[in-house]
Every structure is written in C-alpha cells, then in structure tokens.
Amino acid sequence: MAICHDRFGLGWRHELAAGILTNLQRIDVVEVIADDYFAASRKRKAALRSLAGEVPLLLHSIGLGMASTVAVEEKRLARMARLIEHVRPESWSEHLAFVRGGGIEIGHLASPPRNANVVESTLANVERATRITGVAPAMENVASFIDPPCSSLTEAAFLASMARSLPAGMLLDLHNIYTNSINFGYDPYVLLETFPLDRVASIHIAGGRWMGRRMLDDHLHDVPDPVYELLAYVASRTARPLTVILERDGAYPRMEDLLAQIDMARAAVARGRAKVTAA
After folding, report:
1. What is d(CA 268, CA 251) in angstroms, rounded to the nearest whole number?
2. H helical segments located in 134-194
3. Residue 95 DSSP one-character state
C-alpha cells in the first residue's frame, strides 16, 4: 500500500483496547503483536479482522528469530502466513535478533553478531519468510546491554547494510538507537547520517529506564525528549512519509497521556518537515 502522508499510531494492547477504539480520530494506525494471536480463538481472530476494517493495521512478530545463522522453522512461518491471510494487514515486521539456539529459548530479543555471515543468513531467512507468507517483512533494530561478540561490523554499518538489502526495508526503532548510543558511547546522529532513510518502512518510539550507567529499553516509561529530537531529525532528512508507532507494554498511564505522546511525535515530525521546507 502506498502511503502519501505521515501517520501516527499506537501498539494494540488488551489494556488499551477501549481507549484506542474510542479515540480512532486521533490514531492513524495500530500495530498488533502477531504472536498473541497465533493460538487465538476464532472469536478473537474475527475481532482482529474487524479492527483491520476500522483502522490500518500492522502485524509485529517477536518470536521468529530471523537474525540467526540457522533457518527459521517452517511451522513458525506457517503460523504467521495463516494470520496474515486471515487478517490481511497492511504490512508485517520482525526483529534483527535471535531468540533461541541449540533448542534453548532465550526469552528475549538478543542482538546477533554483526558480521557478514549473519547478514547473509538473515537475508536468507527473510527470503524464506517472504516466500511462505507472501509478504516481505520489515526488520527492526534491537537494543542491547552488550556489544555482540564475534562482530566485525559497527552497528551503523550493520544496520545500513541490512536496510539496503531488505526488500521491505527497516522498522527503525529510535529508542533502541538512543539506548545503544548510551550503552556503547556513540553519537546517534552520526549513525543516522549514514543510514539510508529512504529504506525506513516505519518507526518505533518508546521509553526506558536507567540501570546504573546503562539504559534498559523496557517500554514501561514515557518517550524521552532525545527520542523526539531524533524523530525530528529523521523527518528533516527524508521526504518519505513516516509511520510512527508508540510502544507501551505496561505501567499504562491514562489514555490521554499516551495520546499526548502521539501528538508530541506529530509535532516532532512537523518540526523536521519544516526544516526541509525552509531549506
């Protein structure tokens, strides 16, 4: 689907459902965690399909482990394919992460080694996922507490290489960029200067918390000001329409507070667009 204007939305969570449905005039798009519906009842899936008829809907997968040197299991991709067929979302996405190895479930999104082997194997998994589901996924950068061992590429080089090679481009998580810039001591603006922003399919914003000198991307806090500034910067450097999703996974504030954060994202993009116009 061709998008011709900037859009702003919210991640669908059960606790936020009523607030989202009563404020669709202020929410352009909704992102749903696909894994929550793989084993859902027909009634829940029917409700999800109805939601897709009311507002543009994106599916976001968290458990495939696409950035791995092993092939993603076909049964997992088949579940994703069935959900896509049933819901008919606008698009879907996954993470540049692995979540299992040697039969052991890690329990979180782990940053893979940044090297040529992982780039090649990830692209092979994306090709396989595209063939089975019929739709190429956008891939999201992840936050990390450690610099992945066995890496030969910087994060900037790794992400830029992936963005240029992925058929559906990147889901650019700006809070993850901000988090990693703190944890590993780099300038996030320097990373974004080298990033092919014309390959950004959508953007995530979120909040986290300090753990000593490191930042944890926990989606339990409000979006910090530096992330809005990064969003404005991205908007100033690309003419491509942006789809911006606010993620919140718990410690939910009032819906009005979440809508205010969406409005702050709108304002940040408007500031960036204004710089383009002025230039």
Report:
1. 24
2. 155-165, 174-184, 188-194
3. E
For domain 7-278, the CATH architecture is Alpha-Beta Barrel (3.20)
CA 2 to chain centre: 19
Rounded to whole angstroms, the Cα distance separating 195 from 128 reads: 25
**pTM beyond cutoff 0.90:** yes
Which residues, other chains included, contact 221 with Cβ-Cβ below 8 Å and sequence gap of 6+? 207, 208, 209, 251
140 neighbors 95 (Cβ within 8 angstroms): yes
Cβ atoms within 10 Å, residue 81? 17
Cβ distance 232 to 201 under 8 Å?
A: no
Whether residue 188 contacts residue 177, with contact meaning beta carbons closer than 8 Å, is answered with: yes
Beta-bridge partner residues of 57: 30
Q: Are 106 and 157 in contact (CB under 8 A)?
A: no
Digit-by-digit pLDDT tens for the chain (279 residues) are 556 699 999 999 999 999 999 999 999 999 999 999 999 999 999 999 999 999 999 999 999 999 988 899 999 999 999 999 999 999 999 999 988 877 788 778 989 999 999 999 999 999 999 999 999 999 999 999 989 999 999 999 999 999 999 999 999 999 999 999 999 999 999 999 999 999 999 999 999 999 999 999 999 999 999 999 999 999 999 999 999 999 999 999 999 999 999 999 999 999 999 987 665
Structural domain spans, the chain: 7-278
Residues in the chain, total: 279
Residues 125, 144: Cα–Cα separation, whole Å? 22
Q: What contacts 18, CB < 8 A, 6 or more positions away?
A: none
